[in-house]
């Protein structure tokens, strides 16, 4: 049984579901919680996945406790009915931890995809850092994307024989959706001059950045846009009203900063493949952008994905105005600095992670 509830989970679980569908030895039951509703449905459509069960828990303004209660209650009946041999979860959302807890209560083996990520700060990212650690305690299979993730788990005394380095399935997903001559639904994105302009993709939504950190980030971006004629910014704004309030106040109809609605996954990844560089506080983009040869400036104080930092595909610049401004200036003015980041080998995988994970499950259950 595969269980997921948000867009990022859906993206990274989709290649595994597709691989499971190709194996005669496995019957796969797909269950979604719909912790995210609209954004998750978009992913299901792209990958042509039809869930067997849909808990449909989404509600405006939902709390973490409310999500946990609904997922736990909803999965009890489904797990009892289907009695899976293995329940797979991906990542670090509330759905992931609570689904693992439900499986544990029913004594079902748990496979944790994207295991071993650690920021070292239980409240950053919140609540994800706690979710991934708590899920690890319950898991039978730890599918670690990188050696660094494996080492994190070994330091926490997880058995080495239950940890498997597989790469990250997000790279598998990219191979599925990137198209050379992609046409965007948003006409603005078709009009942008990606060859002669340096288009920067900005995403920023983390709870811990709301307030002064976000103001610093947006102000640095605005000043860079003002000072460089060949720079344009595309910012798909998160639905969080606090994020929107800060963005509209600082950018205030800036002609070179394009504030657009959130994009579907396929549109977003094809946009990312065309831009000059990425500024983000997202976790997943730190993996995806390097696979597309795009330098990433990470506007967070710490990251659970140090592989990109160590490899040189990403830089952790924090939320200080000066740090972000100076790093943007360097990448926009120095071809050598830009090439050093853009041409570094992506440390997150080769597009075959899903096959490895399914092979491990089959071989360990013979």
UniProtKB/TrEMBL annotation:
Keywords (A to Z) from UniProt: Isomerase
Annotated ranges, domain UDP-N-acetylglucosamine 2-epimerase: 18-361
CDD domains per record: GTB_UDP-GlcNAc_2-Epimerase
EC number per UniProt: 5.1.3.14
Molecular function GO labels: UDP-N-acetylglucosamine 2-epimerase activity
Domain of life: Bacteria
Keyword Isomerase: yes
Gene3D superfamilies: Glycogen Phosphorylase B (3.40.50.2000)
Family classification: Belongs to the UDP-N-acetylglucosamine 2-epimerase family.
NCBIfam families assigned: wecB (TIGR00236)
Name of protein: UDP-N-acetylglucosamine 2-epimerase (non-hydrolyzing)
